[in-house]
């Protein structure tokens, strides 16, 4: 599984088994939760972070402990970056019985209800009293529902979720609101550049066979095709 996130909220990613059907387990108020750990299994969490002002990317690796994304990210931040955090994330579904003539074939329908989470970090200078209060708030929230998506599916807003996490710490002040969105950076130019890096004999083989070159982006599923004539014009002639 690969995910890529950027500072402006753009995100993209893929899983190696996209057709895998995750089993659902019962949550509160009839909400179904995905059994993610059963799909992820044992492995490692590898994090690569980069910034224009850095000399190079920072990389850290930890062994997966629970195969639950939020918990393992929190473990990574604690062990690799010495950051104290509380993270919750999840996806909630409603299971509806199929109706109509196709009910026998359709069976049941899992309808996405909500997805989301929270990220709380204790910054330098945080008092022991404030840290203890945050810990109590997180435990209280988790005791009410296993996943924050359960609250969101029931109509709780992100702002209200933050307020529950900050109980006893004053009124939280909203500094910024931004949206996460899918954005893939694949393009025909990237395919062209990739072909230019091939050995000359591979390019010659493409031209001799006169076959199209096809490539599929694993992040968004977009397919790109170049004819032998385009390879000659855009790859060979411009090397």
Descriptive keywords:
239 residues; 4-stranded antiparallel sheet; 9 helices
Overall mean pLDDT stands at 86
* Number of DSSP helical runs: 9
Straight-line distance between termini:
35 Å
Largest sheet: 4 strands, antiparallel
Helix content: 25-40%
**In order across it, which strands form the biggest sheet?**
3-4-7-8
Strand content: 25-35%
Overall form: elongated
Class based on secondary structure composition and strand pairing? alpha+beta
Low-confidence stretches: 100-108
Compute the number of strand runs: 11
Order of helices and strands: EEEEHEEHEHEHHHEHHEEH
Structure description:
The protein has a four-stranded antiparallel beta sheet with strand order 3-4-7-8, with helices on both faces. It has a three-stranded mixed beta sheet with strand order 1-2-9, with no helix packed on it. Helix 7 crosses helix 9 and helix 8 runs antiparallel to helix 9. The longest helix is centred in the middle third of the chain and has 17 residues. The chain is elongated and about 70 Å long. It contains nine helices and eleven strands. 34% of the residues lie in helices and 27% in strands. By secondary structure, it is α+β, with helices and mostly antiparallel strands.
């Amino acid at each position: 599984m690969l995910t890529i996130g950027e500072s402006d909220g753009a995100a993209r990613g893929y899983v190696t088994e996209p057709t895998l059907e995750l089993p659902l387990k019962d949550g509160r108020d009839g909400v179904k939760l995905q059994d993610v750990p059963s799909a992820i299994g044992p492995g490692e969490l590898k994090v690569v972070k980069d910034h224009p002002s850095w000399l190079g990317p920072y990389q850290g690796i930890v062994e997966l402990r629970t195969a639950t994304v939020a918990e393992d990210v929190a473990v990574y931040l604690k062990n690799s970056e010495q950051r104290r955090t509380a993270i919750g994330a999840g996806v909630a579904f409603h299971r509806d019985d199929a109706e109509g003539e196709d009910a026998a074939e359709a069976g049941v329908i899992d309808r996405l209800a909500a997805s989301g989470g929270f990220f709380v970090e204790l910054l330098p200078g945080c008092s022991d009293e404030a840290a203890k209060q945050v810990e109590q708030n997180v435990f209280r929230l988790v005791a009410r529902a296993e996943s924050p998506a359960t609250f969101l599916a029931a109509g709780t807003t992100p702002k209200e979720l933050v307020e529950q996490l900050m109980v006893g710490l004053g009124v939280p002040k909203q500094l910024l609101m931004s949206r996460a969105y899918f954005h893939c950076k694949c393009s025909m130019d990237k395919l062209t550049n990739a072909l230019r890096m091939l050995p000359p004999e591979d390019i010659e083989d493409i031209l001799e066979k006169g076959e199209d070159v096809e490539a599929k982006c694993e992040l968004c599923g977009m397919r790109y095709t170049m004819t032998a004539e385009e390879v000659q014009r855009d790859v060979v002639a411009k090397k």
